[in-house]
């Protein structure tokens, strides 16, 4: 699938890119997964954001790249990893995570990356070298695990 990728710090997102990102996150996290949570948590402004658009210029995936010290004191992080229902099962999620890892290293330098993964996606993230650290925990009614890519 031909995708256009964008990676920008928050302050460089256009109003339409910001709207697309927040809309997709809301569609998946709030509506589809039925989670009422504070998506806009005052971290976006200090992060870089990856946006993947399809040929029709529809945002189909996004992720947030979090610098060391913002979410975790000793590690950078990838968060708000989301794909649209339109592209699930097509490999777009794999492309998104590969790009997010590469961009973290490019922007923030080499080092461990931490994520809070939904438990059902554990094997998916393990395929990128992430390892479970800690026990399963509940976040907004969904089982999660902390994972680190050393």
Task: Characterise the protein shown here.
This protein has one domain: Gcn5-related N-acetyltransferase (GNAT) (Aminopeptidase). The longest helix is centred in the N-terminal third of the chain and has 18 residues, at 15-32. It has helices spanning 15-32, 92-108, 122-126; strands at 4-9, 48-53, 59-66, 76-83, 113-118, 131-139, 142-149. The termini are far apart. It is an alpha+beta fold.
Condensed summary:
This protein has 150 residues and is of the alpha+beta class. The chain has helices at 15-32, 92-108, 122-126; strands spanning 4-9, 48-53, 59-66, 76-83, 113-118, 131-139, 142-149. A seven-stranded mixed beta sheet has the order 1-2-3-4-5-7-6, with helices on both faces.
What are the salient characteristics of this protein?
alpha+beta; seven-stranded mixed beta sheet; 150 residues; globular; Aminopeptidase
Which word captures the global form?
globular
Report the helical percentage: 25-40%
Low-confidence stretches: none
Strands across the major sheet, in which order?
A: 1-2-3-4-5-7-6
β-strand number: 7
Q: What is the CATH top level name?
A: Alpha Beta
Percentage beta strand: 25-35%
Cα distance spanning the termini: 30 Å
Order of helices and strands: EHEEEHEHEE
Mean pLDDT: 94
Largest sheet: 7 strands, mixed
In CATH, the topology is named: Aminopeptidase
Name of the CATH superfamily: Gcn5-related N-acetyltransferase (GNAT)
- The number of helical segments is 3
């Amino acid at each position: 699938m031909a995708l256009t990728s964008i990676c920008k710090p928050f302050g460089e997102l256009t109003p339409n890119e910001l709207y697309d990102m927040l809309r997709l996150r809301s569609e998946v996290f709030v509506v589809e997964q039925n989670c009422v949570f504070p998506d806009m948590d005052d971290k976006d402004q200090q992060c870089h954001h990856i946006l993947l658009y399809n040929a029709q210029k529809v945002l189909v995936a996004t992720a947030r790249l979090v610098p060391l010290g913002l979410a975790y004191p000793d590690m950078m992080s990838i968060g708000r990893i989301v794909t649209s229902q339109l592209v699930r099962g097509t490999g777009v999620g794999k492309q998104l995570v590969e790009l997010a890892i590469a961009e973290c290293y490019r922007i923030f330098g080499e080092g461990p990356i931490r994520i809070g993964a939904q438990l059902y996606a554990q094997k998916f993230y393990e395929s990128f070298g992430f390892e479970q650290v800690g026990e399963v925990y509940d976040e907004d009614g969904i089982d999660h695990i902390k994972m680190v890519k050393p």
